[in-house]
Amino acid sequence: METNRVREFREKAGLTQVELARRARIASPNLSSIERGRLVAWPRVRQSLAKTLKCTEAELFQT
Predict the structure, then answer these.
(1) Does the structure show a pLDDT above 90 at 50?
(2) Distance between CA 23 and CA 2 in Å, rounded?
(3) 59: which residues sit within 8 A by CB, 6+ positions away?
(4) Which positions ≥6 away from 12 have C-beta within 8 Å?
(5) Does residue 31 contact residue 6 with C-beta atoms inside 8 Å?
(6) Residue-wise DSSP of the chain
(7) What is the pLDDT of residue 63?
(8) pLDDT bucket at 54, cuts 50 / 70 / 90
(9) Cβ-contact 45, 6 below 8 angstroms
(10) Contact 41, 34 (CB under 8 A)
(11) How many percent of the chain have pLDDT more than 70?
(12) 4 Rama class: left (phi>0) / alpha (psi -120 to 50) / beta
């Protein structure tokens, strides 16, 4: 099971799920599912989230 800190980093950045999803160019429902651990993020999505949140993929996602 993959754990992530996307919500934590999103909230630190002062972004809503909708704003982060738009900036990272992913669907809002997918972001919600990723944050809740119900969906495993694809590599492109991981890269996009990390770039948007100005952190590394390793900081966001742990297996």
Answers:
(1) yes
(2) 23
(3) 5, 9, 50
(4) none
(5) yes
(6) --EE-HHHHHHHTT--HHHHHHHHT--HHHHHHHHTTSSPPPHHHHHHHHHHHTS-HHHHEE-
(7) 65
(8) very high
(9) no
(10) yes
(11) 97
(12) beta
Q: Topology of 3-58 in CATH? A: 434 Repressor (Amino-terminal Domain) (1.10.260)
Predicted pLDDT at 48: 98
Q: How confident is the model at residue 62 (pLDDT cuts 50, 70, 90)?
A: confident
What average pLDDT does range 20-39 have in this prediction?
96
CB 20 within 8 A of CB 10: yes
| Residue at 57: amino acid letter | E
Contact criterion met (CB below 8 Å) for 24 and 49: yes
